[in-house]
Amino acid sequence: MTKARKALSRRTFVAASALAAGAGFMPKTVFAQKKVTVKYTLGWLPEGANIWSYAAKQFWTKAGIDVVIEKGTGSAAATQAIAQGKYEFGIPAAPNSIQQAVKGLPLLSLGCFNYDTTMGVAVRPESSIKVPADLKGKKVGSTLTSGEYPFLPAFLKNVGLAMTDIQSISLDNKVREVALIENQCDAITCFVASALPKIIAAGINPRVFLYSKFGLPFYAHSLTTTPEYFAKEKSVCEAMTMGLAEGVKFALLNPAETIEILFKEVPELRLASTAKEQLEIGMGVWAANYVSKEAMDKGVGYADPAVYAKMTDLIFENAGAAGDKKPDPAALYTNEFVGKLKLSEAEWSKAKAASSKYALG
Predict the structure, then answer these.
(1) Helix (H, G, I), strand (E, B), or coil: what is residue 112?
(2) pLDDT digits (tens, 9 = 90+) for 29-44
(3) Rounded to an integer, what distance in angstroms lies between the CA atom of residue 140 and that of residue 123?
(4) Under a CB-based contact definition with an 8 Å cutoff, are residues 118 and 206 in contact?
(5) Is the per-residue pLDDT at 14 higher than 50?
(6) Rounded CA gap, 122 and 192, in Å?
(7) From the CB of residue 105, how many other CB atoms can be counted at a distance below 10 Å?
(8) Homologous superfamily of domain range 119-214
């Protein structure tokens, strides 16, 4: 069950992100007199899950880069736009980049800034489904075009079940959460962080089983460019990566200040009466995910090669199509610019304590 019950009102929720206090690594100025201007696409609308992108602008400015941030319409669209050269950079989810790379699009991750997509299964809190094995014989609703659905068989296999052990129900994405709320099914598969707002608004604090807790690691937001741009503008790529890392650290340690930065950048968000609470909760969910072994041991933005290899295998095996080719996982990301910025033990403890009540799974 989520730990956010006390913190969640009946009409709020969202997802999370980052930036940090204190002295840290400062990216060198790319150009001393004339700024470089680049376009950067979000994977989705401005929200708690990507708020650190706005917090990073102060560090990008110091490095001599003027970053134009534009809202997104989904990670798949973002990866395609980056590959086509419409944006120099973006922050889509890593699985979408890998899936597009499987189809031949040229994409390269420069750092990981959200360690869990929150793909998984949600059930009502009073449900008899206490562990994933209890899904046997139950009605499980899914939107068949949603990104988590292709990995449901692998999740079930890892918990000792098969698709034939459940009653799989196809649901339109507009009614998926409603089906759980109204007890039309026993469970739903979803991106938990995205489904929670509607479920919480109905007064339900669901129990969730994240794929990542059962052998299916999927990184989320990753700073992404193309190999061609990386080769031509390596100094810009380094400054963008380190500026975003500084943004993550700032947001982890200064969530209230980070929210104010977003309000200044996107003032229309302030018009919603619950905006601040939604952002606080969203940042909490993100921060709880970011207090991870990779970032704590290796530094902000570090991507585990073993996880990239496993993600590539899983995506190719479960979401590949005829004619697709499995790429070399090592060609999909680089850790060249990450690992330089680290939080102290005390800083990680502060971030963990502040976000623990929002932890999922």
Answers:
(1) strand
(2) 665 557 899 999 998 8
(3) 9
(4) no
(5) no
(6) 7
(7) 16
(8) Periplasmic binding protein-like II (3.40.190.10)
DSSP conformation class of 272 = S
The pLDDT value recorded for residue 30 is 61
Length of the chain: 361
Q: Do 157 and 220 touch, CB atoms closer than 8 A? A: no
SS3 (DSSP) at 226: coil
Non-local (6+) Cβ contacts of 65 within 8 A are: 30, 35, 36, 37, 38, 236, 239, 240, 243
Is 243 in contact with 109 (CB distance < 8 Å)?
no
Position 32 scores a pLDDT of: 53
d(CA 296, CA 303): 12
Q: Which of 354, 282, 268 is nearest to 17 (CA)?
A: 282
Give ranges for CATH 3.40.190.10 in the chain: 18-116+219-346, 119-214
Q: What is the pLDDT of residues 136-148, one digit of tens each?
A: 999 999 998 888 9
What's the fold here for domain 18-116+219-346?
D-Maltodextrin-Binding Protein; domain 2 (3.40.190)
Q: Count of alpha carbons within 13 Å of 310, Cβ hemisphere only?
A: 13
Mark out the alpha helices in 117-202 (DSSP H runs).
152-158, 176-181, 192-201
Rounded to an integer, what distance in angstroms lies between the CA atom of residue 89 and that of residue 311? 22
Question: How much of the chain exceeds pLDDT 70, in percent?
Answer: 91
CB 163 within 8 A of CB 189: no
Question: Is 97 exposed, middle or buried (CB count within 10 Å of its CB: 0-12, 13-18, 19+)?
Answer: buried
- Select from 323, 331, 111, 341 the least CA-distant residue to 221: 111
